[in-house]
Amino acid sequence: MSLRGLFPSPTVSLYMARLFVFRTFALLGALVLVLTSLDLLTESAGILAYPGNGNAEILRYATLRVPQIISTFLPYSVLGGAIFTLAQLNQNSEIIALKSGGLSAHQVLAPLMLSGLIVAGLSFAFNDRIVSRATSTLEQWKKVEFAPLPIDRGDRANVWVQASGNLINVQQIKGKGDAAQLYDITVYQRDKGSLASILTAKHGVRAGDGWRVDNVKRFDVASATLTPVPDTIIGQGVRPDQFTLAHVDPNSSSFSELRMAIGELKAAGRPTKALEGSLWHKLSGPLSAFLMPLLGAVSAFGLARSGKLFVRVVIGMALGFLYFVADNFALAMGNLGAYPPFLAAWAPFLLFLMIGEAVLLRTEE
């Protein structure tokens, strides 16, 4: 069978795809509008609590939050769009007409699944280019309690490292390896578990196996005095990767950035299983848009006049939501190290692909 033979006629395929895409994005728009409004009601008080913040900051928060909401609820919208489209076609006896014309169930679903595959590609690009950057900026903004961001996008921020019993906090890190530079450094120096002094510095660079900091001041806790001190060495034995790779957030990283960070962590001898699962999930997650028409197909086949169309719609929704539950569970188990990374990301997709095929073949007639 040729590739063209896998689909209905171009007119029918375009008609079904248009119905599916329109319902998907209409449902997504409604969800985004409602959920963004509810989120703003929750967060607006915190945004306005910082002096000088106003409507511009609320609008900025919304522009950063909307991509996250779209990314989260697009698969649900695809499921709803597929079910509503197929239920309507079934109710109007259009599915019966297509099958009477000699089309199989897979041919009937082909326009929707191809549309889902295109949506999956757009979703991957959207997550990779827009959502990751919005998430990174929003997380940094929340850390400073919606104050003006003191850092440029892409730099590491607010990193904590322990060294020789002392705690080191760096507000901003630029560069990597021995070329890394530290800004706004605070060292909490402890003696037998008690805080003895607090050392602050504006800037630090790599020096031997430690870090040379300048513009240094030391606050002595016992005497409550603040005194300037010469340039000094801190963090003996602290490697650059402990600052630059102290916290890798997969949600704030693009696919290429996360893959690069995993390689650097492996080179530093640090565990990467959870991040590898998240890396694979950046591919399997968007592909759920391809799977949803298959899981919702139970609402397409069977006689609508039998009175069981509503039951079929509920079954389709249940299968879709069970997939999302299994997907989140497998990813959580992967983060705990109970599942291998590839299995954590792909097992739910492959499992429900087989379940969808089995249900489709069982209920087609």
TrEMBL record:
Predominant location category: membrane
Pfam families recorded: LptF_LptG (PF03739)
UniProt keyword terms in alphabetical order: Cell membrane, Membrane, Transmembrane, Transmembrane helix
Segments crossing the lipid bilayer: 68-87, 108-126, 309-326, 338-361
Keyword Cell membrane part of the UniProt annotation: yes
One of the GO BP terms on file: transmembrane transport
Intracellular or extracellular location(s): Cell membrane
Membrane topology: Multi-pass membrane protein
UniProt GO cellular component terms: ATP-binding cassette (ABC) transporter complex
Keyword Transmembrane helix: yes
NCBIfam families assigned to the protein according to its UniProt record, in alphabetical order: LptG_lptG
Protein name, as recorded: Lipopolysaccharide export system permease protein
Species assigned in the record: Sphingomonas trueperi
